Amino acid sequence: RGLGSSARSSREDSWLKSLFVRKVDPRKDAHSNLLAKRETSSLYKLQFHNVKPECLEAYNKLCQEVLPKIHEEKHYPCALVGTWNTWYGEQDQAVHLWRYEGGYPALNEVMSKLRQNKEFTEFRKERGNMLLSRKNQLLLEFSFWNEPVPRDGPNIYELRSYQLRPGTMIEWGNYWARAIRFRQDSNEAVGGFFSQIGQLYMVHHLWAYKDLQTREDIRNAAWHKPGWDELVYYTVPLIQEMESRIMIPLKISPLQ
């Protein structure tokens, strides 16, 4: 009787534990390797600079003088993808997107060379006096998104930023690998990225539109395509927080 009672108690304990212990399917690779483009080793840096309102014009002028020199310098393995001021969203904000060809070693090389560049050192000092705050993130690009390449304008740009629930990046990637085909008709998809360093489980989608009305028309048209509503239904629960910025490119931005 004692042995039977012990076995029954053990089975009950095991059953109770199964209610509260989540089983995790082991993965053989990091989600960055599963979702990022394998044919390139590009690393992206996204910078957010909150500028003192009275300094925004001077800040833009300073950036337009210095940033193209870094972009055009052949000894720096980096490129300026785009640079903007936020129009709707957080005000008096500048957003810069850089690409480093060759990943982290390229980033380290550029940072090392810039520390020895007297003009850039003076630029950072002068720029710092104009800022209220700043933050950046290092990103990889999703394998299924468009490559962010220079485009003619005039355009407005929307940066949609999603804070995902930890552990849901693979799900997000699986759904958006299908969803992106619904948003290609008007060539509005510029690039899609996910964070590696900085605020984690962040996703950024970058879109280009001729104007706000065109944005509205294109987004509304997606809802008439069979399957779009289902993909939105499944991705919304993965999101903890989301933000939209409408941005205007500076004159030096390759994305116009």
TrEMBL record:
It is found in: Mitochondrion matrix. Keywords: Autophagy, Mitochondrion, Transit peptide. Belongs to the NipSnap family. Its main location: mitochondrion. This is NIPS2 protein. The lineage of its organism: Eukaryota, Metazoa, Chordata, Craniata, Vertebrata. GO terms for cellular component: mitochondrial matrix. Residues 157-254 form the NIPSNAP domain. GO terms for biological process: mitophagy. The gene is Nipsnap2. InterPro entries: Dimeric_a/b-barrel, NIPSNAP, NipSnap_domain.
